[in-house]
Design goal:
The chain is mainly α and 131 residues long. It contains 7 helices and 2 strands. It has one domain. A two-stranded antiparallel ribbon has the order 1-2. Helix 5 packs across helix 7.
């Protein structure tokens, strides 16, 4: 049990070292909704590499963090996905597509239409398949 806890703490420490670069990349705002209200924190997007990598992390506000972690989806509150799905950052595209797919499963028309119009790079496609 202690070994697992130690590994978890080491991972959190390594993740916190990426904080400055993540904040700089994100402009100190949520990389998904671009909100600037409240705290933002780093979140690793699975599948996780052996060591935390900035390319596999995103800076998210508390609200987006909750939704990405499986929280309740409100289609009207997630209209920002229409913009974030076209992000240049693969990590943001992966989060956006995963959320859009959840919305599409709930028969949200605009999410289905957006998914049909998206071009995803091979890198993003592979990441999405790996979950």
């Amino acid at each position: 049990m202690a070994r697992g806890l130690d590994r978890h703490r080491e991972r959190l420490e390594a993740l916190s070292l990426l904080g400055k670069n993540l904040t700089r990349r994100a402009g100190a705002k949520c990389e998904l909704c671009e909100g600037t209200v409240g705290k933002v924190a780093a979140l690793e997007i699975p599948p996780l590499p052996e060591e935390p990598e900035i390319e596999r992390c995103a800076l998210l506000c508390e609200s987006c963090h909750r939704v990405v972690d499986g929280g309740r989806l409100s289609p009207d509150d997630l209209r920002f996905l229409e913009t974030s799905a076209w992000s240049d950052l693969p990590v943001v595209q992966v989060m956006s597509v995963r959320l859009l797919r959840r919305l599409a499963e709930d028969s949200v028309h605009w999410a289905s239409s957006l998914l049909d119009s998206l071009y995803l790079s091979p890198e993003v496609e592979e990441w999405l398949k790996a979950k």
